[in-house]
Design a protein that fits this description.
It is a single chain. With about 210 residues, the chain is α+β, with helices and mostly antiparallel strands. The protein has one domain: Muramoyl-pentapeptide Carboxypeptidase, domain 2 (2-Layer Sandwich), CATH 3.30.1380. Strand 2 and strand 3 form a beta hairpin. It is globular, with a radius of gyration of 23 Å.
Amino acid sequence: MIPWRVVKRTLVLFAAILASCAPRGTPPPEADAGRQCLVALDRLGVAYQVAPVPAAAGSCEVDNPVRVSAAAIAWDQPGIVACRFAVILDRFAREDVTPLARQYFGETVAEMRNFGTYACRTTRGGHESLHAEGKAIDIASFILVDGTVISVERDWRAKGAKGRFLHAVALAACARFSLVLTPDADRDHFNHLHLDAGPYRSCGVRGP
C-alpha cells in the first residue's frame, strides 16, 4: 500500500503542473460575455460607444454600459444602457415598432424621442429604479419619415391611427420587456412609455 504522505505529495505536484499549464490572463466569464454582447451590437448595426458610468454614480451599477444613439431607429438623444438591454431595444424597434408603423401609416419611423435612460435614482416608493441599472427607457414620441409626430402625451387617447399605433407598440413591448408603464398606469406616465427589464412583470395597457 502506498503511504498517504506519498499520495498527498503526488496530488499537490499534479495540481501544480496543471496550474502551470493553464493559460495566463484568462478573462473571467463575465468579461467574455460582455465582449460577446458588444459583438452582437456590432452585428445588429447599433450605433454606440462603450461608456463607463460616471464615478459619482456611487452604488448605481450598469452591467457593460454603452452609450446608444441609434438601435434600429435613431434616437433624438443618446442614452446609457446595459449592453443586453440595448440588444432588446434594437429588436423591439426592428421587429415591433417598424412593422407596426408600416401597418398603421405605410411609413417607417425616422426617430424615437426619449426622456432618458440611465439615472442614478430611486422610485417614489423608495426602491432602486431600473434606470439606475441602465435597464430602462422612457419613450416620449415617434417621428415618421414624412415628419408626422406621434406623441404619447397628445395621442395616447386619440381616436384613429395614432392612438391605435401607440397601444399596439405598448402591447408589443409587454411581450418583450418585464414592466411597461403607460398613461393608463398612473399620472407619472402621462407623457411617456416606461419600458424596463427588471424582476417585476406588469403590462400597464388598457384598450385603445
